[in-house]
Amino acid sequence: MSPFISDERSGALDVDELLSKLTIDEKVSSLAGKDFWHTTPLPQHCIPSIRLSDRPNGIRALGANFDTDLLAKVGQLQGQEAKAKGAVVVLGPTMNIQRSPLGGRGFESFSEDPVLSGHLAGHYCRGLQQENIAATLKHFVCNDMEDERMAVNVMLTQRALREIYLLPFQLALAIGDPQAVMAAYNQVNGTHVSENKELLQSILRDEWKFDGLFMSDWFGTYSTTGAIDAGLDLEMPGPSRWRGRALSHAVMANKVTEAQLDDRVRNVLNLVNYSKASGVPENSPEKQLNRPEDQALLRRVSSQSIVLLKNENSILPFNKSKTTAVIGPNAKIARFCGGGSASLLPYYIVSPYEGIAAKCKQKTVFSQGATDHKMLPLIGDYLKTPQGQRGSIWKAFNEPATSVGRKPIEECVLTDSNCFLMDYDNPELAPVWYAQAEGIFTPDESGLYDFGLGVEGTGKLYIDDERIVSNFKNQTRGETFFGSGTIEEKGEKVLTAGQEYRIRLEWGCAKTSQLPPFGPVGGKHGGWRVGCFKRTDPVQAIEDAVAVAKTVDQVVLVVGLNGELESEGTDRTHMDMSYSSNTLVAGVLEANPNTAVVVQ
């Protein structure tokens, strides 16, 4: 038995013994991540690396059902899903106050009410930690806007801070006993949260008696000694930007005492000990967990979260036997969440059109009517491999596409055409490497199609070996990949309905880009985004939808936001829907008053 293991059966670390044996450099190394999702192991002392994961977006309408028992069940399910993914720390729940409906990450949080937020988050933590998966309250505190989120200084009174912004965290800690808390990016009253001693030490630890781990948000550490002194235990992600040799030097210079260092390391080791009870082995392979009972629970939660704002003239419920049209930009696409780190690919998903059509006894007709995308919608869902599998075949190479006979280093099937390789790694890849993605696209309608390509790196898009889009030279910085990528370059081609077209992307990693690295998340491997949409006349599209509305007994009109309009990294500038959506709603309501409007 190792001298650093205090309990042979559980494998629990003897934290005090370890602290007495670890060198300064070993202690320092444990206070930052190894990579994007893992802590740094010290195998010579039997200290494993543990895996953290962004909270699955799951059901974000939970705040609308006021059912704490249901929250606990959802938390427990997400704990089981975390185990399947080999993760022992879940970076959630998000519980910031939705001070403004324009906030880009408002969809991630529960409510603008601090009491409701605190109770729901606390019971979610209870359920999650029943599986011995550590919950992480985030983002502590006052992180209610995305614009300039790393620089913004939130100025507020002590009363507002205590009664509105801190209260949900205080309640959640008391109810759910989460093992970790994550710092917000922003400043509060002039000091960044990750180095704010009043918040981290005086309130969180001294007053509230929190004894868990306090971590940075990703790239949200801004100092060496200041963050350590305030109480920031773990810098994420790794490798460290602010600790490492700089922190070791600070200890040598007595800018940081070894006692302070031990306090920070103790909290990391305690979290490692907590994670051992989960039974998840180190570097566990990722698996899927998609059981019928899980789908039933999520369906139940979803149905109980629906809010009926108005039912004028008792238009609802609709008659299943009558003719029905489902109209709108969100009708055939399941807009279940906003964009950013909280988004994910669900195991299964049902669009409003699919759900309504399944219930109606007569044929359900569809018309899009309006478009609300900022960039062309992703093509990934509409591609198939030559074997008929959904997605495209992706290959990684150490040589560019011009190299004859190049051999792939790695190959897989991708179902997404928006890929940002922040945490991707393959030891066989050269510092400058390339990739190819190829799939078959079969359009439903004939017409002129627009294709778009945004990259961090370089890229060219081909259809049947004809180059349609080049994003290779004279690049322009845009909003893709948190500002580290280009604008969406576009091309066009006339396609025939039912005909198969071979779509091929040739891509070079971030180091091939003509743009200098930008921001903390860019510059490693890079990414690509491929979109496609049949070009339409917006006026004619609305007229077509209005004509469809006139032919049926009842209409469900689905409008609202999407992952582009509401997303991490940016706030909306206004509360209005797009002009085309407003025009569509007005036209359809006039054509058929028997219309239910669904706003997502």
Question: What does this protein look like?
Answer:
The structure is a single chain. The chain has helices at 15-21, 24-29, 68-84, 114-129, 158-176, 197-207, 225-230, 244-252, 258-276, 292-305, 352-359, 538-550, 579-591; strands spanning 5-7, 12-13, 52-54, 89-91, 134-140, 153-154, 180-183, 187-188, 191-192, 213-215, 324-327, 364-367, 383-384, 392-397, 410-414, 418-420, 434-441, 447-456, 458-463, 466-471, 489-495, 501-508, 527-534, 554-559, 595-599. With 600 residues, it is of the alpha/beta class. It folds into 3 domains: 23-276, Glycoside hydrolase, family 3, N-terminal domain (TIM Barrel); 308-371 and 537-600, Glycoside hydrolase family 3 C-terminal domain (Rossmann fold, 3-Layer(aba) Sandwich), CATH 3.40.50.1700; 374-535, Galactose-binding domain-like (Jelly Rolls, Sandwich), CATH 2.60.120.260. Strands 13, 14, 15, 17, 19, 20 and 22 form a 7-stranded antiparallel beta sheet that branches. Strands 3-4-5-7-10 form a 5-stranded parallel beta sheet. The protein has a 4-stranded parallel beta sheet with strand order 12-11-24-25, sandwiched between helices. The longest helix is centred in the first third of the chain and has 19 residues, at 158-176. The radius of gyration is 26 Å and the shape is globular. The chain starts with a strand and ends with a strand. 42% of the residues are buried. The model has no long low-confidence stretch (mean pLDDT 93). It holds the Pfam family PA14.
